[in-house]
Design a protein that fits this description.
With 277 residues, this protein is an all-alpha fold. It has a single domain, classed as MetI-like fold, CATH 1.10.3720.10. The chain has eleven helices and no strands.
């Protein structure tokens, strides 16, 4: 262990410039490896589609973003992005709101906890993709089934996480508030809710990945627009020059949303981050 560089040790505290360097290093290596592999395949076969060069991907992405579709009159990238963001926003937003309300209730009221928590736990164990055919049968192949898949896939986990966060609040706070005459509603809204809001934001951050998975799966099966729909549509043509940029675009959107939520935590709930350190 003594032979490790100082910035890799247990007590390491690398300077800011080194943190940025270490962060960029894996991405730089990945780009370098892809560039070399793509160049080698293009030299061997200029019409190779498996590893398209960056110029071809940029050209395909430009057409999708800035050239109007002659058949529909839409700009493909922005139409797909809007459709996917609408679905994931409604599904994950509804799951966050319902999970917050139910998790708060289960954490405060022991009777309801024994009544509903085992059922919520049971639902959370069921793989959401396994019920996708049922959702299409019950709700049809339109927007509702896609939104419901995202909701069912994230709501139970958000509920359980919020319930655990409520349970971690010192019981003395609850007792003192009740002793001072606080009603159950004011106790929940003015004492408990402000303390669990940052945990809700973190839980939503952690749910972004599964939410995208459920969205892509539902769009791949039954959709006429959306990022997942487009990826699975063009795969039959081996259009890697569009598939790879679309995947990177999804990653960029997720990073932007994650950064926004982390920024909200730092600015609005700095006390939560300080207490966790």
């Amino acid at each position: 262990m003594s032979s490790l560089p100082k910035f890799l040790g247990i007590h390491a505290a690398p300077p800011k410039w080194l943190r940025w360097l270490l962060t960029a290093l894996p991405f730089s290596l990945l780009l370098l490896i892809y560039g070399l592999a793509s160049d080698a395949r293009q030299r061997e076969n200029p019409s190779d589609k498996l590893l398209p060069p960056p110029a071809k991907m940029a050209e395909a992405m430009y057409r999708a973003a800035f050239e109007e579709n002659k058949r529909t009159g839409e700009y493909q990238l922005w139409t797909d992005t809007g459709a996917s963001l609408r679905r994931i926003g409604i599904g994950l937003g509804a799951a966050a709101c319902c999970g917050l309300l139910l998790g708060l209730t289960l954490g405060l009221f022991a009777g309801l906890e024994f009544l509903l928590l085992p059922f919520v736990t049971f639902v959370s164990i069921i793989p959401p993709l396994a019920v996708l055919p049922i959702l299409f049968i019950v709700f049809g192949v339109d927007e509702l089934a896609k939104v419901m898949l995202i909701f069912i896939g994230t709501f139970p986990l958000i509920t359980r996480d919020i319930q655990l966060a409520v349970k971690k609040i010192p019981r003395e706070q609850i007792i003192k508030a009740c002793t001072l005459g606080a009603s159950q509603l004011s106790l929940a809204c003015r004492i408990v809710l402000p303390q669990i809001m940052p945990r809700l934001i973190e839980t939503v951050r952690m749910s972004l990945g599964p939410a995208w998975l459920f969205l892509i799966a539902s769009e791949a099966i039954a959709a006429t627009s959306g990022l997942g729909y487009r990826i699975f549509l063009v795969r039959r043509y081996l259009a890697m020059d569009l598939i790879i940029p679309y995947v990177l675009w999804i990653a960029l959107i997720s990073v932007a949303v994650d950064f926004s939520l982390r920024l909200l935590l730092r600015t609005r709930y700095a006390w939560y981050l300080e207490a966790r350190e």
